[in-house]
Amino acid sequence: MSDAEKQETFSTPERKPYETLLEEPMDRVALLKQYLTIGSYLVKDYQDALDDQERAPAGPKKETAKKRVNNTKKHLRTFEEHSIHPIFGPLMDDLNDRLWGIDPKMRKAGTITGPDQRVTQLIAQIADEVAMTEGNNAKEVEEAIYNITKGGDVQLAMRPLLHGYAGEPYLRRALISLFERTTGDRTLTEEKIKNVWLIELYLRKLGSSLNIGYELNGLPPADEAEARINAFTRNPQELLEVWRHIRRDAPTTFAKALKQLPEAARQKLIDQDIDSPDELIDATQIDYEDLVLEINQRLGLPGRLPTDEEIEARQSDLGEKWQEVMPSAGFKEEASSKEISAVWMPKGIGSSRRQFNCHYRSGNRDESHTVSDSILNPYEEDERYWRVQAHELTHKTHDVMLHKGEHTRDAKGELYLQPGSGNAVAHSIRETLAMLVDNAALRYYKTVVKKTPPQSGKYPDTKYALTIRVQGMYGLGQLWTRQRINEFIDADSAVPTVDAVAAIYDDIAPRLRKAHEDGINIKHYRSVLATNLWEYGRYDGINYISNDLKIDTETDGPQINPIRRAFEKQFGEDWLWGEKAKEARAVLLCLYVETGKHPQGTDEDIEQLAQFVQTTKPEAALEKLQALGIADEYI
């Protein structure tokens, strides 16, 4: 958004940010001092609560101490998340623009017409190189790059062109080169490391730490998280399922990877099945581009982005179809206690191509409401658009139900949830439920819409499986960088020196590339450090796979979310659309409220939520929803 667009959007009464009693200074230095004072208190309060819980005897006093821990954890996590942007946001937003080839000054003025000089020169250079290699006309290649990226929008190269469309091979190679060289800029990546360093230093000044940050979000300590990610990416049963998806979805690429194997072994894997990932230890490296292109071609996907008319038609069609499958996605304001929501479809160059849900409070202490906006990428192909739509609207519905729980009283006159319970729900739980729904949504789309049922197992297809695996690599990039930064801070190197930042880059960048080859040897264009490091969220990446980071004790295979297992046990694998779908949806809506009582994302919380699914009678769920004021049309 330009400055004028921001002003217009957030000055409207229904979207005006929440006004607190505490006046925040406009000067960033003064704001930093205020935040350090408040944050230091919240860290100490949390640590004192942990100490009290440790000392409290079993029984009522232990339970009281536990409640205090949960409450202080909620306050500290919320503060840490929301205090970073006001202080560091200008630095991060400016760098993010430049990383993707956008002039920050032109964004502010609302005058973006194309990429900046760096990316403009890169496009011309890549066009020359491709033309020389392929025998094309350089000017025609350059024009093709601009045409397919809607005027030089580099973000469209990764999301969604390379992942979701089947364009000309020479043009796809040009887009990969554009993406890698734009985001692989060492100078800008080192600047990003510096920004992360400043944020880590700020959090350390509060008295917080990397492990506290993970703990606040229901995740294991940093070292344990790293070990769990490695165990997840190397788990034999996990690898076996992914290999079987590749064999089914991209047989030519699969066969190509077997070229160095003995003929008998190769024919067995092609003609029969894979019995163990050990059979593929000597497989050659798979190029992710070859893999995805073959899948896209087999799916009959087009070689261009949709037009504005096609986007509008699809948004209406798939939006309506999703509300038929999940009626709660169509919650209106009167059904959600003053909850304002919208779906945004930014199209212009410079728009974020990452889908997300943004929720915040609007108003003041006397009268307020929730704003929940879903930002979708209008250029995704239908199948992915469908799945991501389901994911992001699940976040919106989750927010609605938490808000209802905080504002509705039961038959005894007590609130279903205490005020503030919604803010206490950790990202790991929010993403666990969003992933539950988007997995089921994709299975529905393949089974009912496309009439091509997915093979049984944890993942619906190859793309989905590899998307989940990439979250592990992303989590490692985030974790390793921050670990190295904290090592320098511990060694009294508070200031991010040129040598220190360079050392971190030289250490992490090659490790990250190697991590993408671990388990299944895939050359992935998303292995550059800059796109695996997000300043705002230490835990981003890991929070999507928090329930994958352990072995399933029932099967010794890939961990299937206990909540998903509970839904499938109670209502069948087709719980989203089968005979018991309405019963399942009723329990799901009540589950959203229940997360306000088990908000921390720990293994214990997840198991309790899974138990809730298994033990809640559908009739009781329907009665509770009626008491919460949810009309039957939304169930």
Poorly predicted ranges: none
Query: Taking strands numbered 1, 2, ... along the chain, how are they ordered across the largest sheet?
Result: 2-4-3
| Cα shape | globular
User: Structural class, from secondary structure content?
Assistant: mainly alpha
Q: Quick one: how many beta strands? A: 5
Describe the main β-sheet briefly: 3 strands, mixed
What number is the mean pLDDT?
A: 90
Textual characterization of the structure:
The chain is mainly α and 635 residues long. Helices cover 60% and strands 4% of the residues. The chain contains 25 helices and 5 strands. The chain has helices at 3-11, 28-55, 60-99, 104-109, 117-134, 138-148, 155-164, 169-183, 186-206, 210-216, 222-234, 236-249, 251-257, 263-271, 288-298, 308-325, 382-407, 421-424, 427-449, 462-490, 498-515, 562-571, 581-594, 603-615, 618-627; strands spanning 286-287, 339-344, 356-363, 368-375, 522-523. The two termini are 36 Å apart.
Q: Could you give a short description of this structure?
A:
This protein has 635 residues and is mainly alpha-helical. The protein contains 25 helices and 5 strands. It has a domain at 117-183.
